[in-house]
Amino acid sequence: MLADFHNHSCLSPCASLEMSPRKLAWTAAAAGVGIMALTDHNSARNTPAFAAACREAGIMPLCGLEITTAEECHVLALFDTPAAALEMGTWVWEALPDYPLDIERFGDQPVVDEHEMIVELIDTLLTSAIHHTFQEIQDETQRRGGLFIPAHINRQAFSVESQLGFLPPGHYDAIEVLAPQACAYQQRYPDIPVITASDAHAPEQIAKHPFQLDFSHPTIPAIREALANLTRL
Ligand SMILES: [Zn+2]
Ligand SMILES: [Zn+2]
After folding, report:
1. What is the 103 CA–ligand 1 centroid distance (Å)?
2. Smallest-distance ligand from the CA of 159
3. Per the CB 3.0–4.6 Å rule, which of 18, 38, 67, 175 could disulfide with 50?
4. Model confidence, pTM
């Protein structure tokens, strides 16, 4: 099954306003994606609409966030229900600096429903680094039963390599690597599942870099096990 675990909706200030959860789900389904995650910056507020749209479009939703750590690394925290993602989102929100959104520069940050109706406009900039460290966010995500995946670790900004210079030792459910270097990174980290993701911010980026994942049930433990199997291929 094609899996794509890193995508943004219109709630992310850097994403296109065309990226409603509905558009994301239906475009991915048309491209053959079977399981997809919504991971807006530091917020899970659009995951209820995303989960509803995915059910309609016939694909499995994962509900998550792309969190900016205190060190300015991007990490993914993924859950199998909107409720779990929203609870994690509350923990993140309490550690997010209250910088006002510059609408001229970034545009709006709308929370929408599954029919693309705006429910609320968030006026705190969502992309700031939160007060918790990489390690604290990893511990909190895993304590809540979520998948913890450092994002685009080989990107030249907002990644563990750009900010820390190395991948800290620890247990990762996977690491996300920019597609051209996925094989090289799997060789470098043979015990950690290496995945690619689209990190879509605009409709034309949807489903561009999924990976293959086979699992029995769409639950976090089954997905964790399927990810671990990637290193045994
Ligand atoms: Zn990122
Ligand atoms: Zn992203």
Report:
1. 20
2. 1
3. 38
4. 0.97
